[in-house]
Design brief:
The chain is mainly beta. It is built from seven helices and 26 strands. It folds into four domains: 67 residues, Ubiquitin-like (UB roll) (Roll); 81 residues, Roll (Ubiquitin-like (UB roll)); 70 residues, membrane protein fhac (Ubiquitin-like (UB roll)); 229 residues, Beta Barrel (Porin).
C-alpha cells in the first residue's frame, strides 16, 4: 500500500516551479532528481511539458514497480501542482534460475538465494534484481570461480499481468584450488611463510582466507611493503604470489605517564622484527620511574607459526622502591607462547630468579630459585579509538619449592576480568574490572617481595599511592599480602567528538587475615580520544578514610582494556 504524503518540492530559482503531491517522500525526491531544473518556457507549452513529465515520471517510478502512473498539472492558489497517482504496483513471481548444484551449495550463494528480496508477491524493485545479479558473480569469484558469466540475465516485466520475473542462467566456469605460495623480495624462508597461511595447497580457493593470509603477513611486522595477489592462468591451481620488502631497521617507541604516587613514568621499547630467514625477532623494553625501574629483552623464535606459536628467551632486571619495600630482581627464562582454542593465548615456561629484597622491619634477604609458570588469556576489543564493547579475561599460576632453591614451597594464582559495554544511547560506556590473587604456602614470611600482593595506584585503587595498601607489621611497616581482591566500576559519557567525562569508584585491597582493612576511592576523569590513542586524566580520593586524605592525579595512555 502506497503511503501518500503531500510533499512540496520546488525547482531551482529561475526554473519552472512545480509542487509534487501524491507520492511518498523518497519517491517524490527521486522524481525531483529526474526532473531537475525545468525550463520556465514550459509554462506556455503544455504539450511539451506533458511529454517531459511523462518521461521523468516513468524514469522515477518504474524502477520501483509503478508502470501505470497517471498525473496532472493544476493551478491551485497561484501555484502549479503536479499530482501523481502511481497506480498499482508490479510484484515478483517465482524466478527462473539455472545455477549448477555445486555453485548453489556454496555458503555465500546459498545465503543470497535464501535471503533474496525477489520473493513471490513482494513489490518489484529493479535494484534488488541488479544487486542479486552482481552479488552472485562476486560470490563465485570469492569462491574460486574466476570467470563467471551469465548466459542469460533478464528482468521480464508483464505490465498487463502486473508481474515481474528474474531470469538468471549462470555459467560459473572452472573452480580453482590454492596452488603454491611464491615469495619474492624477502629473505624469509618460504616454508615459514606457508605456515602463516590459513589454507593448504589443494584447498578450494577462498577470497576470505586469502585476505586473512595477507593480514597475518602484515601482523608479523616483518615487511615494510607487501603485495599479495593471485597468479591467473588456465591451470586448475591458482598460485599465490607474495611480493615483499623486509623491514631492515629497528622500530622505537617512547611513552610517558604521570601520577602523584610515582611521579613521571617513562617507557622505551626497541623492536627488531626480522633478524634472519627463520623469522626470529628481538625486543627490548625499559621503564623508569621513582618507584620502579625495569629492563627486559626477549628473543622470539617461531615454532610452527610466527604469530601463534613461538619460543621466547628472556632476560631482565627489575628494581622497586616502595615505602618499606626495597627489591632488585634478575630473571632469565624460556617460555612457549601459543594460541589455543581459537583466540586464547596460552603460555608456559620456567625462569631462574635471583632476588635481593627488604620487606618491612625484616633484614635484607638474598634468594635464588626456579619459577615454573603458566597463563592463559583472551582479549576482544572493538576497533577504533573509542571502542563500544570488549572484554579481557586472564589467569596465571606460578609455583616453586625448596627442591629448586625456593625459600618456601608456594603456589600463587592470579586472575582478572574486564568488561566494556555501551548503553542504549551509544554515548555512555560502562567499564568494570576485577582482579583476584592468592598464595598458598606454609611459610608466607619467606615469600620474596616480588611475589607478594599490594594494592593502590592507577591500575588498582586510584585514591591511594602505588602499592601502598597491604598488611603491615607491628611497627606499621608494609609487609605485602597473601591475598588480593580489587575491583572498579567506571561510567563515561561522550560530551564532545573527542572527549569523554568519567566517574568511577574503586575498592578492595591486599590482605592476609579476614579482618584486614579494605579500601575504597572515588573520582572523576577526562578521556581524550587523541590521534595517537586514548589519553586518560583521573582525579581520585579515598572514601571513609581519616588516615589517608588528599587527591591523586593520574595521567595514562592506551586502550581501556
Amino acid at each position: 500500500m502506497l503511503l501518500c504524503v503531500p510533499l512540496v518540492l520546488r525547482a531551482e530559482d529561475k526554473g519552472l516551479a512545480l509542487d509534487i503531491e501524491g507520492l511518498d517522500k523518497p519517491t517524490a525526491h527521486n522524481l525531483r532528481l529526474h526532473m531537475g531544473r525545468l525550463d520556465p518556457a514550459l509554462a506556455t507549452q503544455p504539450a511539451r511539458l506533458e511529454r517531459i513529465l511523462r518521461a521523468d515520471i516513468d524514469d522515477a517510478l518504474q524502477p520501483f514497480g509503478w508502470y501505470e502512473s497517471t498525473f496532472s498539472v493544476q493551478q491551485i492558489k497561484g501555484k502549479r501542482v503536479l499530482r501523481v497517482d502511481p497506480g498499482p504496483r508490479l510484484v515478483w513471481v517465482p524466478s527462473d534460475m539455472n545455477i549448477a548444484p555445486d555453485v548453489r551449495e556454496l555458503p555465500a550463494v546459498a545465503e543470497l538465494l535464501r535471503a533474496t528480496p525477489l520473493k513471490p508477491g513482494t513489490p518489484l524493485i529493479h535494484a534488488d534484481y541488479e544487486r542479486l545479479r552482481d552479488e552472485l558473480l562476486q560470490a563465485c569469484r570469492r569462491a574460486g570461480f574466476f570467470k563467471p558469466r551469465f548466459r542469460r540475465a533478464e528482468l521480464r516485466v508483464d505490465v498487463a499481468r502486473r508481474e515481474a520475473q528474474a531470469v538468471l542462467d549462470l555459467d560459473a566456469g572452472q573452480r580453482k584450488r590454492f596452488g603454491e605460495i611464491v615469495l619474492s623480495g624477502s629473505q624469509l624462508d618460504t616454508a615459514l611463510l606457508a605456515r602463516l597461511a590459513p589454507f593448504r595447497k589443494g584447498d578450494w580457493f577462498d577470497a576470505v582466507q586469502m585476505a586473512r593470509f595477507e593480514q597475518r603477513l602484515r601482523d608479523t611486522g616483518y615487511f615494510s611493503e607487501l603485495v599479495v595477489r593471485v597468479r591467473r592462468s588456465d591451470a586448475e591451481m591458482a598460485d599465490i604470489e607474495v611480493l615483499a620488502a623486509d623491514v631492515t631497521e629497528s622500530r622505537y617507541d617512547v611513552g610517558a605517564g604521570f601520577s602523584t604516587d610515582s611521579d613521571l613514568r617513562l617507557r622505551f621499547s626497541r623492536n627488531s622484527p626480522l633478524l634472519n630467514s627463520r623469522g626470529d625477532s628481538l625486543s627490548t623494553d625499559a621503564e623508569l620511574s621513582a618507584t620502579r625501574q625495569s629492563l627486559e629483552s626477549t628473543w622470539r623464535i617461531p615454532h610452527s607459526d610466527p604469530l601463534d606459536d613461538v619460543f621466547e628467551l628472556s632476560t631482565g632486571v627489575q628494581g622497586k622502591s616502595l615505602e618499606d619495600t626495597e627489591s632488585i630482581t634478575m630473571t632469565s627464562g624460556i617460555a612457549h607462547a601459543m594460541k589455543v582454542f581459537g583466540d586464547w593465548s596460552y603460555r608456559y615456561g620456567i625462569s631462574a630468579e635471583l632476588e635481593r629484597y627488604t620487606v618491612g622491619s625484616e633484614t635484607q634477604k638474598d634468594v635464588a630459585y626456579l619459577l615454573p609458570a603458566t597463563s592463559i588469556s583472551r582479549t576482544s576489543l572493538a576497533p577504533g579509538l573509542d571502542p563500544p564493547r570488549g572484554y579481557s579475561l586472564w589467569t596465571s599460576v606460578d609455583f616453586s619449592d625448596s627442591s629448586v632453591g625456593s625459600p618456601a614451597d608456594f603456589f600463587r594464582w592470579r586472575g582478572g576480568l574486564g568488561l566494556l559495554r555501551s548503553l542504549h544511547d551509544d554515548k555512555t560506556r560502562v567499564l568494570a574490572r576485577v582482579e583476584l590473587g592468592a598464595i598458598w604456602t606454609d611459610s608466607f614470611n619467606e615469600i620474596p617481595a616480588s611475589l607478594r600482593f599490594y594494592a593502590g595506584g592507577d591500575r588498582s585503587i586510584r585514591g591511594y599511592d602505588y602499592e601502598t595498601l597491604a598488611p603491615r607489621d607491628v611497627n606499621g611497616k608494609l609487609l605485602g599480602g597473601r591475598y588480593l581482591a580489587v575491583g572498579s566500576v567506571e561510567v563515561s559519557r561522550r560530551v564532545r567528538p573527542n572527549w569523554r567525562v568519567a566517574a568511577f569508584v574503586d575498592g578492595g585491597g591486599a590482605f592476609t587475615e579476614r579482618n584486614d582493612d579494605l579500601y575504597q576511592s572515588a573520582g572523576i576523569g577526562l578521556r581524550w580520544l587523541s590521534p595517537i590513542g586514548q589519553i586518560r586524566f583521573d582525579l581520585a580520593a579515598p572514601v571513609h578514610d581519616r588516615e589517608n586524605t588528599g587527591i591523586k592525579l593520574h595521567v595514562s595512555m592506551g586502550p581501556p582494556l
